[in-house]
Design goal:
Elements lengths: L1 H4 L6 H24 L4 H28 L7 H27 L7 H23 L6 H32 L3 H35 L1
Family: Belongs to the UPF0111 family.
Protein name: DUF47 domain-containing protein
Pfam families: PhoU_div
């Protein structure tokens, strides 16, 4: 009787989907920022705004977790998933603010490529999260997670090549330091996307 009076699944999957959509939106803004510095300030503000929206969804998810008696997934998995998704946008905000702080007016093709890989990862995160409500999708979800792993490996290769080129060819030490920081942040975003994929794969193992 008591259990029937308590909230059950709530809107966890809706919240996951909303957050994943913001991850994609933030990543698109990052690609646009890396491609055109004419509107840098507005791009940075846009990414900061997306990150704040995502924070509200994260808080709402955690709050709902505390209020829900029966959850559709393991409580720890819900918390880990929304937290790692939030890390994606936190890092995108860090990257945008770092570009602004360092007063960069152009970036290397490798930085642009890393931003594109971030977007590709974010789109795959959204795709995987969008299927998570139905464990009949488990095979497709695992395939998407494997694609995220591949994209993260691509980002590793791009960063290693970019670092090698930077230390070999860049004569300006200040610019070298700035670009190194941007490379590392963007590559770490793909790491966090891979973390999300790993969490989702764990959820599939537990529930499918």
């Amino acid at each position: 009787m008591f259990g029937r009076l308590m909230p059950t699944e709530g809107k966890f999957f809706d919240l996951f989907n909303q957050h994943a959509e913001l991850c994609v939106k933030g990543a698109r803004e990052m690609v646009a920022l890396m491609s055109n510095f004419d509107d840098l300030e507005n791009r940075v503000h846009a990414i900061e705004g997306v990150e704040k929206q995502a924070d509200k969804i994260t808080y709402a998810t955690v709050d709902l977790l505390h209020k829900t008696f029966i959850t559709p997934l393991d409580r720890d998995d819900i918390h880990k998933l929304i937290t790692r998704m939030d890390d994606i946008l936190d890092l995108l905000e860090d990257a945008a603010q770092t570009v602004s702080l360092y007063d960069l007016h152009a970036v290397t093709p490798e930085a642009k490529r890393l931003a594109e890989l971030v977007l590709a990862c974010a789109e795959k995160v959204k795709e995987a999260v969008g299927m998570l409500h139905n464990m009949d999708n488990s095979r497709q979800i695992v395939a998407v997670c494997e694609e995220i792993d591949r994209l993260e490996s691509d980002a590793d290769h791009v960063m290693r090549a970019a670092m090698s080129k930077l230390f070999r060819d860049e004569p300006d030490v200040r610019h070298l330091i700035k670009m190194k920081a941007i490379y590392e942040i963007l590559e770490t975003v793909t790491d966090r996307c891979e973390d999300v994929a790993n969490i989702i794969e764990g959820i599939i193992v537990e529930n499918a």
